[in-house]
Sequence to fold (984 residues):
Amino acid sequence: MEKISLCCFISIFLLLLNVTLPFGTPKADAAQTGIGSRVEKISAGEQHSLALKSDGTVVAWGGNSKGETNVPDGLTGVMSIAAGTYFSLALKSDGTVVAWGNNDWGQTNVPAGLTGVVSISAGVYHSLALKSDGTVVAWGRNNDGQSNVPGGLTGVVSIAAGGQHSLALKSDGTVVAWGYNSFGQTNVPGGLTDVVSIAAGYYHSMALKSDGTVVAWGQNASGQTNVPGGLSGVMSISARGFHSLALKSDGTVVAWGHNNFGQANVPAGLTGVVSIAGGVYHSLALKSDGTVVAWGYNDWGQTTVPAGLASPVKGSRIAGGTNHSLALKSDGTVVAWGDNNYGQTNVPVGLTGVVSIAGRGSHSLALKSDGTIVAWGYNGYGQTTVPNGLNGVVSIAGGGNHSLALKSDGTVAAWGYNGYGQTTVSGLTGVVSIAAGGFHSLALKSDGTVVAWGYNGYGQTTVPGGLTEVVSIAAGDYHSLALKSDGTVVAWGDNNYGQTTVPVGLTGVVSIAAGDYHSLALKSDGTVVAWGDNGEGQTTVPGNDNLNGLALQEGSFDKSFSPSVTSYTYSYIGSSVSSVNVTAELADTTYAGLYVNNQPQESDSAATVSISGDTTVIPVRVEPYFKPAKTYTITVLRDSTPPVISFGTNGNASWSQSASTAVTVTDAESGVDASSLQYAWTQSTATPSTGWTSFTSGGTLSKNGVDGDWYLHIRAQDGAGNTANAVSNRFRLRAASTGSTSTGSHSYVPDMKPVIDLNGGSPEPTVDVFNRSIVNEADLVKTIESKVAEAKEVNATMDFADTQGHWAEKTIDIFVQLNLINGYKDGTFRPNNPITRAEFAAFLNRAFNIQGGSHTSVVLKDIGDSWAKDEIENLVAAGVINGYTDGTFKPNQTITREEMVVMLSRIVNLNNLEKDTTKGNFNDLNGAYAVEEIHAAAQASIVSGKGDGRFDPKSNATRAEALQIILNVLKLNPQVKTLLDSLS
Fold:
């Protein structure tokens, strides 16, 4: 025989999970794309939904009260799924079944040793499996005989599990039913034949006939068996609960029956549907554009379709002639290309509703949903002259110059060239699949065996001995292929080009196809394996998974784009940026789809992607129609950290004629914006609004010739827009002088007072620590000196029963020795008890000798009976407290940590204190009214936090905390600190 050249193509493969069966199951089967790979099947249970991805893994969502969405870890190689009531089934490519979820009735106890399974169905409490030999296995609840498979039942090609009953469709187009029958759901209507699909609800049954009409029987309380008048052109049916669904060849959905939750309210305008699935109270539809539409009951999230379950329009079936190609789209239309010498690529105008295609030689075939055949192209041997009256067809095949059709009754029709007997079919029944070669024909029977006839010059019709458990067949010009239920491939016939040399280790196959002199296999992970003649590139899978370009509107990547480089990083996005714009350009816009962040996107158009956190990874996926996907990633790094400002010399405690420090600003992420660097010298820690001057990082900034305390302020910004502000510690400046005459231009002289020298030395000047209108610092030093001397003389001690080992034990002891506290009559101090506002006012008066002032306009109306009335009024007169806006002080209310800081900030000159600006960065001050006072007090080491960056401003202060903070303030005066430290 002369070798016939092939056009160089491989079209998209449908993942034919029911490849042995000419009839569909009641579950919805369709190509989809989820996150990372295509979704091939969907199934709806009572409160949950399932999706099967092309990589053989399962996604589940919705209710999970019985573990029905807990997909077993490591479950792969799945080729079909079924969702029951609170449980799930998965059929693996090796013909075994995995089950999980509710097992109250043993419905997930898969029978030991069950293999060779080609289809599954899940009911309410029972499970069904169809084996490759056409027999049925059932397990689970059997109270009504729903798991009692009728004896001798064979030749089954489809199954459906209902509420408490079961259905089986035989290869002759008849239906067998068993189980619960109170509503007549197992009373198959007399004379029902030519059935091509079945479905079972809770208490009703449905059958789709080859003429596109629907028959229903059983319970009708909700109208679920009232098939709408005139309903025709149906290509798929589904039932689960108490409603029914039908998918028409025009891509629309019809629903009827129970509608309490809107499950029968088909969304307005829903078109382009290619698959349906009915749950108990919800419905699903898969559109030809790859999107899933769900409606009905959603209390368990069963109609909340997971984000990313959208896909490009994919081909659903392919076929090839000698030099032309056919593709069936998921919308039921046909595309053809290649050699057209005989019109074989002239698809008839208006051809729709196609469910299958076939081609070989120079002619083409299309099977419509009504069971009729349309043929075109070369007709020299009558191969496109479809026999008159031929209907009820469920499968077609095209040979070199002949054609085959499989009818719903399991018989085969053949026409065209018969020089080798390839169209002579005699007594052949129980057929579930057909294939046509160059001059030979193949038939797969329901028992998993293969029959071959026609030309045998290369052994192509000599079926290997013992070949069983076959689930799919394919025929080349002079060779034959068989796919077994364990996912392996057997080949025989002509091997001149290696077309029957199956690659070693090839497993997990779910679909096969044969060219003239080459062979193809589709694996469960969506990859294609090809072998045999490659003279025209026919074993080189076409298509392009590359991008031509990838860009981010916000800036450049870390490396230049190259199609072979799949990982890119952008540094950095500012802290306020919430989205970025990605533009990707496909290398092949004809046969590939583009997904940005798992959402469909037009090539070379900008997609806006939300970002959050410090790192966002954006997948950009190329989905070729014919090849595995390739994913590029863009990692967007967010710079939320401001620049770091460092002072070479951070202040000086002693007087100096000049201040000088090197200032360095660094940023390890987006870098420092050099134009943003500014400094200002002021005599306050408050950020100035004017007086800013630019500088260069690393430069030295100086101040001289002006007396007083000075602070250096720095502000900076990084490339991402993060700003930083810093202020130095105090620089103490005293201008150079001659004698007693100041030479400076400023008249500022800090408040000075003599320092008490306990050792009799000469006093030296110091700046006031306290507000002189409230605390006479000299008098305070004398008072503390007197109390310390007295304490040392009398050796005053008091051992409280509850302070030993306490963190504030030494602090409490100091105040005891100073005779400022006494404790309670029971010998306790209760250091962890909250301190009231009255108690804190009394402590302040005793510790600081508060001087009453002229603030007499404030009158507090609730202190008349307070034991601390005099102390409170003294603090009011001094301006330390003002009370609440309602004119009260609430003396018996506990004081908060924030309120303590406010009172102390009115006693202390916070601006005169040396500060450590690294302190006080608390993370819980939102809502606090004294943020500035808390920061300043922390930087002056008056207060500290509670760990984990918290200050806890609104929490009640304890007696021990109050004493510690007062002690910290007292020790701000160096003389007082020396005196207090002398107490042992």
Remarks:
- Residues 1-37, 310-315, 736-766 have pLDDT under 50 and may be disordered.
